[in-house]
């Protein structure tokens, strides 16, 4: 996989994997984002992700789509510098779900900053589990 684009193999789609993630996963919060993550043996890609923006908090579909795009872009730009090196050195993969917590629409810079913080925490835990 070259470049910065998001490939299909990086998206978490399997219903059983999602149930396992929310059942057995760990959690980290950097408001307005919450990450639920679970480590497993190496797979096709170092990390798979999904994004949830609850309708209960953000009522308008246009705003949910806007937030989903902002979260996806922040993940796309941060993952290769922060998360992937830690996962490849630990020789594990991660499933990650990002959940939006706020009732207000956050700007991109806030989301990117919090995404970077969450990915650093996940990377730190991956290296701690390996040691």
Your description of this structure?
The protein is of the alpha+beta class. It has a single domain, classed as Ribosomal Protein S5, domain 2, CATH 3.30.230.10. The chain is 48% helix and 22% strand. It contains 3 helices and 4 strands; from the N terminus they run αβββαβα. The protein has helices spanning 15-24, 61-90, 108-130, and strands at 26-30, 33-41, 47-52, 92-100. A hairpin with a 2-residue loop joins strand 1 (26-30) and strand 2. The longest helix is centred in the middle third of the chain and has 30 residues, at 61-90. The mean pLDDT is 93.
Main β-sheet, in a few words?
Answer: 4 strands, mixed
Class from secondary-structure proportions: alpha+beta
Total domain count: 1
**CATH architectural grouping:** 2-Layer Sandwich
Overall mean pLDDT? 93
Helix content: 40-55%
Q: Can you tell me the residue ranges where pLDDT is under 50 for at least 5 consecutive residues?
A: none
Top-tier CATH class: Alpha Beta
Shape: globular
CATH topology: Ribosomal Protein S5, domain 2
């Amino acid at each position: 996989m070259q470049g910065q684009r998001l490939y299909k193999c990086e998206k978490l789609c399997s219903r059983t994997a999602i149930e396992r993630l929310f059942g057995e996963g760990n959690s980290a919060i950097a408001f307005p984002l919450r990450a639920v993550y679970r480590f497993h043996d190496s797979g096709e890609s170092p990390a798979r992700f999904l994004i949830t923006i609850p309708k209960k908090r953000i009522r308008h579909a246009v705003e949910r789509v806007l937030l989903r795009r902002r979260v996806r872009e922040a993940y796309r730009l941060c993952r290769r510098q922060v998360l992937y090196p830690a996962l490849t050195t630990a020789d594990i993969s991660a499933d990650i779900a990002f959940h939006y917590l706020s009732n207000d629409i956050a700007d991109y810079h806030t989301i990117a900053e919090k995404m970077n913080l969450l990915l650093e925490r996940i990377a730190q835990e991956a290296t701690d589990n390996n040691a």
